[in-house]
Amino acid sequence: MTSFTESGGNFSTLGISKWLVEALRSMKITQPTDIQRACIPQILGGRDCIGGAKTGSGKTIAFAGPILTKWSEDPSGMFGVVLTPTRELAMQIAEQFTALGSSMNIRVALVVGGESIVNQAIELQKKPHFIVATPGRLAHHVMNSGEDTVGGLKRVKFLVLDEADILLTDTFTEDLATCVGVLPPKTSRQNLLFTATVTDQVQMLQNAPPVPGKPKLFSYEVESMDNVAVPATLKTTYLLVPEQVKEAYLYQILTSSTYGEATAIIFVNRTVTAEILRRTLKQLDVRVASLHSQMPQQERTNSLHRFRANAARVLIATDVASRGLDIPTVQLVVNYDISANPDTFIHRAGRTARAGRAGESICFVGQRDVERIEAIEERINKKMDQFTDVHDTAVIRKALSKVTAAKRESLMAMEKENFGERRKINNRKNGKEKGYRKD
C-alpha cells in the first residue's frame, strides 16, 4: 500500500476510529490526502458520496476509513459491498481491507471470476463483514447460489462502486442491476462512488434529485482535476513507427542503455497482441510477464506478483492494468497501441510518475493513430515531444532480424496451442464482451 502525499491535518481529526488510525500509522500512512480529508467526515456523517480524484490520490482509504470505523461500532454480518471492474483491483482492495482490519478480526470475502464458485459460496455463507467483488461473479451468486449464501446482502449498510465510470457503462449494466437489486433500498444504505474520470453517467448521478429522507449527496472533485490530467513529473513522447516493425522498436528501446534496467508496462489493445509480445520478448531474454483477460486467474495473479517483486521488469498488459493497481515503481509506460479514448491514455500514464516521482510515457504512432494522438494532446492540454533515443538504422542493424525470428516462433507456438479458441467459444456462448471482462 502506498504512503500518500502529505496534505495537512491527520486522520484522528477526521473522525476515524483510534484503532484504525493506529493501523494506518503502522503502514506509514499518517497524513490524509485531499480526497480523504474531504470525503471521510461526510461519509461518517451519513451522506452518500461521489468522489473524483486522479489515480494514486488515496481513494481506497477515502471510503475504507469511514466504512471500517462505522463497522467497528457494530461489527455485524455482511456490512459492506465493494464492486470494481477488474479482478486484480478487487484483489488489491480486499487485501487493503484485510490489512487495515487485521487487529479487529475482520472477515473479507473476495468474489471474482477465475476462482472456485463453490469455495466462494461457502465463504459467503459464513456472512463475511465485507464483500469485494466484480459484478459478473457476484451476480452469478445472486442468481444461482441460494438464500443461505446471499441472504445476508439484504442487510448491507454500504455499497461502494470503485472505478464507477467503468461500472456505469453498458458492459456492466445487467450484472450491476442484479447485484444492487438484492441489497437494501438506497434509502436504507449509504452509496459511495469513486472514480478517476467524471463521465456523463457519473455527472447524471451528481445531478439527480435528492433521495427523500436522506442527507443531501456529497460530491467532491479534487480541484482542477481535468487541468492536471497528467502530473508535471511525467514526460510524454511519441515515436512514429511502421506497423510491421513495432516489435523491433520496442525491443530496441527496452534493451537500450537508457531503459535497459527500467521497469516498464507496455499497454496493448488486444489480448492476442499481449501474448505475441510476451512470447517474443521472453525468447529474446527480456524478463517479461503479461496481464490480460484470457489468462487463467492464477497466472494473472502470479504475473502481478512477479512484476511487483521485480522478477519481471516488463509487464505486457491490456487495460485490466490501467486502473487503480498499486504498482509504485514503474519508470516507463509504452502505449504500444493507442486507445480511441483519450481518458484511457491518462489511466495508462497514471501507472508511472506517481507520488511525485518522475516517469515517462512513449506512444507508438502508426499512420492511423495521428488523430488519436491529437485528441490525447487536447485532453491533457500538452504537446508531446518526439522520442529520439532510438533510430531506424540501429533497429535495422541490431534488432530487426532476431526479433522477426522470435516473433515467427511465437506465432507458430500459439497456433499449435490454439491460442484464442477458448475466448471464441465463450464469446459465442455469452455474446461478445467489449473492454473489461464482467467477472
Automatic annotation (TrEMBL):
SUPFAM superfamilies: P-loop containing nucleoside triphosphate hydrolases. GO terms for cellular component: cytosol; nucleus. It is found in: Nucleus. Gene3D superfamilies: P-loop containing nucleotide triphosphate hydrolases. GO terms for molecular function: ATP binding; hydrolase activity; RNA binding; RNA helicase activity. GO terms for biological process: rRNA processing. Residues 40-216 form the Helicase ATP-binding domain. Its EC number is 3.6.4.13. Residues 233-396 form the Helicase C-terminal domain. It is an enzyme of class 3 (hydrolase). Keywords: ATP-binding, Helicase, Hydrolase, Nucleotide-binding, Nucleus, Ribosome biogenesis, RNA-binding, rRNA processing. It holds the Pfam family Helicase_C. SMART domains: DEXDc (SM00487), HELICc (SM00490). Signal peptide: none annotated. Residues 9-37 form the DEAD-box RNA helicase Q domain. Residues 415-439 are annotated as: Disordered. It catalyses: ATP + H2O = ADP + phosphate + H(+). PROSITE patterns: HELICASE_ATP_BIND_1, HELICASE_CTER, Q_MOTIF. InterPro entries: DEAD/DEAH_box_helicase_dom, DEAD_box_RNA_helicase, Helicase_ATP-bd, Helicase_C-like, P-loop_NTPase, RNA_helicase_DEAD_Q_motif. A motif (Q motif) lies at residues 9-37. This is RNA helicase. It comes from Lachancea meyersii CBS 8951.
